[in-house]
Amino acid sequence: MGHQRVKALDYDDDLDSDDDYFEEGEGDGEFLLKLFTPTQKNMRQGTIEVKAALDDSISISDKEIEEALWHYFYDITKSVTYLKNKHAPMPTKVAAQKKSKQVSRFDRAANSAMNTQVQNASGTVSPYPIPQKPSLEHAIISAAEFFKDVPWLKVPPHRRGDIIIEPLYPRGGLLGGSSKPSKLAALAAARKKKLESEKNSFAAAAAVDAAEQPTDKVVSLLDRLNIKGQGKQDVAANVTKNEISSASVLPIPTLRKYPARRKRSSSPRPAETREDKPASVPASDNLIEILDLRAPPSTFAATMIGAHRPEPRAQSPEGSMFSLYANRPEVANANPFSGPSPDDIVMNAQAKGNKSKKGPLKQPNGGKTPSNLADSVSSLTVEEAPKVKSKNLNVLEEFEKSNMKRMANFVVIGHVDHGKSTLMGRLLYDLKVVDQRSVDKLRKEAENIGKSSFALAWVMDQTSEERSRGITVDIATNYFETEKTRFTILDAPGHRDFIPNMIAGASQADFAVLVIDASGNSFESGLKGQTKEHALLVRSMGVQRLVIAVNKMDTVEWSQARFNEISQQMTAFLVAASFSPKNLAFIPCAGLTGENVIKPPLEKVIPGNWYSGPTLVEALDASEPAKRALSLPLRLTISDVFRGGVIHPISISGRLDAGSLQIGDSVLAMPSGETATIKSVEIEGMPADWAVAGQIATLHLADIDPIHLRLGDIICTPSAPIKNVKSFTAKILAFEHVVPMSVDVYRGRMNAPARVSRLVAVLNKHSGEVEKKRPRIVQPGAVARIVVELEREMPLEVGTRVVFRADGNTIAAGLLEIS
Ligand SMILES: Nc1nc2c(ncn2[C@@H]2O[C@H](COP(=O)(O)OP(=O)(O)OP(=O)(O)O)[C@@H](O)[C@H]2O)c(=O)[nH]1
């Protein structure tokens, strides 16, 4: 700070302007004198010493020395150093300015190359030393030379081997470091040496293997296959023959023990390349001169590789990076596809093993050509499930031999709540078909919902809906037998809403049991309701015999008068409905209490013991067996379609109207026209081999989809099928007025909308003779012939019984005459 202040004294302006500064203590003259006297001495002495310290070659004026001394406050050493540095010879001003900045070696090398080019062009000498070209022969090789025939791995023969790139500069030059090899370099060298020794030993071992075929050597499967494989022998022979002699000269790529690597290298080559260009080294005359369009190396490249311009490159036509060893004779002579592939070797070895153990090995495609294979495939068929084997029974003979108890199916009809189900429940209970325990249980359950009187009815009505509503909805089936007959009960619903179900039941019946409530007004109301309708329906459906159960006699105290009244009225009606009086049987009974069901009523019950007739069961048993159309073609009306589980996925049940069937039979479903095979048969829940007309059978089917089976469809014999018709002529009994009108035609459960298209004639009820042609209307109770047009086809034939309904009422029933 003092120095700065002294130095500032040189500026007059400052001195003049800062008068106060000098006014402290002494006056101006004295102060200056004190100040400059020792300075002048020091300056003279310092100038002498600096001159002495400086080299004589450097010419420096005294003033310059004094300035230095003044600047460095008479420090001789610093002043000398400053002057020396100031007057030392400097190459350029730029270099002097960048003296403090370390010039990178790369920059120096680049500058050198640039100067070299400049020197070559202008003859000037570069200020920097240019690296001298190494004297070794290898040093002439530049990187461009090395890679002149790249892509990689395309090494010319004269350079095949250890490529030694002599460093342009001593190690540790450009990038620093020691000239001693690094550990990594040492490891690489050791590995290389080891591989070479392995290669030589492997080549020798391969030669021995080819001759001796060692078997005791523990090698992997691939090793063994490789050794035994022809491809291996070929390659090994080549390697042995060519490589051992040249191994010391030409370091070859290491041959691996496993052939997969060789396969991998050759497999990508397309077949056409393999055929057109065998794996041989392209001779020199095969080389193609390629126009060298490359630009001269850049400055950087020239620095790195020198100014050498590579010769025009010669490239093999293949120009492939995989041709590194293509010009090697052992590889050139080897056709990689001449022998089996490694996969082939493995497969052949496996085939050998299998052959030795299991005989001839099948070829993957069975030795078939593609065309044969295609033929075989086209000839393949999906084998159908084995048909059920038929016992080929003569069913009619079997039926005769069986001495089967006669069978009868009857439908229980009548107005709603007249006691049909209760009467049948009593029948079954008294016949011990249903045990006491079951009835007690039903009674208890019925009591729980306040319907204790329905307990016996629940023997038949088993669905929750029926039990909760107290009415029968669908046909309920049950079985019992007497000494003479096996009976099937078809309990029909009495409610008018379920007339179709009642028709379905009636279509299976041999006769009918008409239940009439004897209590006050019930009979009369029934006559207005389904009592008459049901009677007419069953009659129109072919039922000729009726057992009329005058039920609930307990409610009228077993009044004979009431019984007689009902009998007379009903007889008149039924005879009018074409029932024969001899086929009508009136039985007084009480289903709820069980009188006269299976046991005659007690005298105390019947006042005056006025009834001595049969019980209900006796009346049933007294019925003439229905004629069975055994010799006619099979006709079975489907009343139920269900899935019988895994074993029986498709099952149907229904009454055989005609014909017979047995296990293994092929049957035809109409109207679908689909065939099925009968797998098994059940009659009354028991397995059977066959079934005949009149029986209600369950058939478990195969070879048919359930969608082709519906309620009311007909199962028939394929050789004599029932036909689907669109129109027919029928003889009808009119219940209501019939005019040309829209109706629904029922055949059992099957129905279809139709139109009465024409009234042909009114017929005599008894003789059937035409009484009036082309009537405009058919009166209720009259018999007439009409023509009906169906909106869709139905399987119908002559003799089929049909029912006509309109607006929920049965208006007529009839028999097909012409279809
Ligand atoms: N007092 C008396 N009641 C009876 C007799 N038979 C049936 N009942 C009663 O009549 C009612 C109807 O009986 P169900 O057997 O259900 O009549 P149903 O004709 O089968 O009825 P649906 O099948 O619905 O048409 C029940 O409450 C029975 O207890 C009988 O002999 N005497």
TrEMBL record:
The keyword Signal is assigned to this record: no
Reactions this protein catalyses: GTP + H2O = GDP + phosphate + H(+)
CDD domains reported for this sequence: EF1_alpha, HBS1-like_II
A Pfam family assignment: HBS1_N
Keywords: Cytoplasm, Elongation factor, GTP-binding, Hydrolase, Nucleotide-binding, Protein biosynthesis, Translation regulation
BP terms from Gene Ontology: cytoplasmic translational termination; regulation of translation
Molecular function (Gene Ontology), one example: translation elongation factor activity
SUPFAM superfamilies in the record: EF-Tu/eEF-1alpha/eIF2-gamma C-terminal domain, P-loop containing nucleoside triphosphate hydrolases, Translation proteins
Keyword Coiled coil listed: no
Localization (cell): Cytoplasm
A GO cellular component entry from the record: cytosol
Disordered: annotated span: 255-284, 352-373
Assembly notes: Component of the Dom34-Hbs1 complex, also named Pelota-HBS1L complex, composed of dom34 and hbs1.
Family: Belongs to the TRAFAC class translation factor GTPase superfamily. Classic translation factor GTPase family. EF-Tu/EF-1A subfamily.
Protein name: Elongation factor 1 alpha-like protein
Originating species: Lepidopterella palustris CBS 459.81
